[in-house]
Amino acid sequence: MNGTLNSNIKNFRKFKGMTQEELATKVEKSKNVISNWERGDNSPDIDSVEKICNALGVTPNQLFGWEPYPEYERFISIMREKRKILAKLEEKRDGLQQQIDGLYTSIKEEEDRWRDTQ
């Protein structure tokens, strides 16, 4: 993770599926302190950094963004690929929707013509 300390705290916390309250309990701080750290209003002291690392299962170098965190990098890579696949599926869906709309229009026109001849 290459972000700032505050964004890394937030991203690792979310990656681990933890709420601010859960992290606060583990590092013996309030939810507001965690929120302040994540917004960058202030930074944790060295003792808190150690507790954050233990709670999130990362090294200080990973928390500060100086060293990669392979699990998170794999996760991000997988999410990017899934988004690409989703975009392609949405394009196909849009194309199919246009075909469906065209068929409905064609059916309606044919029905109207048939009614006009009756």
Give structural notes.
With about 120 residues, the chain is mainly α. The chain has a domain at about 5-70: Orthogonal Bundle (434 Repressor (Amino-terminal Domain)), CATH 1.10.260.40. About 75% of the residues lie in helices and about 0% in strands. It has helices spanning about 5-15, 20-25, 30-40, 45-55, 60-65, 70-115. Helix 2 (about 20-25) crosses helix 3. The longest helix is centred in the C-terminal third of the chain and has 48 residues, at about 70-115. The protein is elongated and about 85 Å long.
Number of helices: 6
Largest sheet: none
CATH first level of the domain at 5-68: Mainly Alpha
CATH architecture of the domain at 5-68: Orthogonal Bundle
- If you compute it from the alpha carbons, what radius of gyration comes out, rounded to the nearest whole angstrom? 26 Å
Return residue spans where pLDDT drops below 50 for at least 5 consecutive residues: none
What spatial form do the alpha-carbon principal axes imply? elongated
The count of β-strands is 0
The SS-based structural class is: mainly alpha
The SSE string, one letter per element, is HHHHHH
How much helix is in the residues? over 70%
Q: What does the average pLDDT come to?
A: 92
CATH topology of the domain at 5-68: 434 Repressor (Amino-terminal Domain)
| Name given to the CATH homologous superfamily of the domain at 5-68 | lambda repressor-like DNA-binding domains
The N- and C-terminal alpha carbons lie at a distance of 71 Å
